[in-house]
Amino acid sequence: MTTMTNADPKELAKFSELAHKWWDPESEFRPLHQINPLRLGWIEQCAGPLDGRRIVDVGCGGGILSEAMARKGAQVLGVDLAERSLKVAQLHAMEAGIDNVQYREVAAEVLADEQPGQFDIVTCMEMVEHVPDPSSIIAACAKLVKPGGWVFLSTLNRNPKSFLFAIVGAEYLLRMLPAGTHEYAKFIRPSELATWCRSAGLDLLQTRGMEYNPLTKRYWLSGDTSVNYLLACRKGTT
């Protein structure tokens, strides 16, 4: 197993305890199942068809996005440091007969040293707010992607509204997520994430927000980045 230089053992333990629920659409991971079509469609809208593209999904968890991209014809490598989550992802892909997705327990920084510039697309969704040094993850993503390739990121903004919606609302009132899933101090403002991207040699091309209506239980993409948001970046060719 890779030395976990940029991982919080408490975070890994938390997701390991829930690993068996990754593919239950009515479990604590229900929101990820609901937003996955939105994330996938946005990636395709920005980067074009995924068929034949080589993709690494950093912080893949149980493989919800990794497997969806593989179903589109991409060659996908999902990486994470939560061993139990990876085993669940591997088993689900095997049972589904999907052989163009692989999983590996390795830190993003280590993989970047091993395979620099080897991927057409890098995704890192709902992950950077769970690590001690998110800027290191962004630098690794930039190193992994080919010149001209795409890096897609998503996380939570840090402001009073996001605290109210993402923690008080989602974790304690609506109970969409287990209490303690997120730590407000680790939330990341778009300006901070954009700065790390530019420092890593990535050009920020698009920012989108993700909203949720608790009455209709519907998610949609919008221009409101005050709570959940996504960034699309490209690596320069020079």
Automatic annotation (TrEMBL):
Gene this protein is translated from: ubiG
Keyword annotations: Methyltransferase, S-adenosyl-L-methionine, Transferase, Ubiquinone, Ubiquinone biosynthesis
Protein name: Ubiquinone biosynthesis O-methyltransferase
Catalytic activity, reaction form: a 3-(all-trans-polyprenyl)benzene-1,2-diol + S-adenosyl-L-methionine = a 2-methoxy-6-(all-trans-polyprenyl)phenol + S-adenosyl-L-homocysteine + H(+); a 3-demethylubiquinol + S-adenosyl-L-methionine = a ubiquinol + S-adenosyl-L-homocysteine + H(+)
The organism's place on the tree of life at top rank: Bacteria
Residue ranges the record marks as coiled coil: none
PANTHER family, per database record: METHYLTRANSFERASE (PTHR43464), UBIQUINONE BIOSYNTHESIS O-METHYLTRANSFERASE, MITOCHONDRIAL (PTHR43464:SF19)
An MF annotation (GO) of this entry: 3-demethylubiquinol 3-O-methyltransferase activity
Residues that bind S-adenosyl-L-methionine: 39, 59, 80, 125
Matching SUPFAM superfamilies: S-adenosyl-L-methionine-dependent methyltransferases
GO biological processes: methylation
EC number: 2.1.1.222, 2.1.1.64
HAMAP family listed in its UniProt record: UbiG
Pathway: Cofactor biosynthesis; ubiquinone biosynthesis
Function: O-methyltransferase that catalyzes the 2 O-methylation steps in the ubiquinone biosynthetic pathway.
Stored Pfam families: Methyltransf_23
Family classification: Belongs to the methyltransferase superfamily. UbiG/COQ3 family.
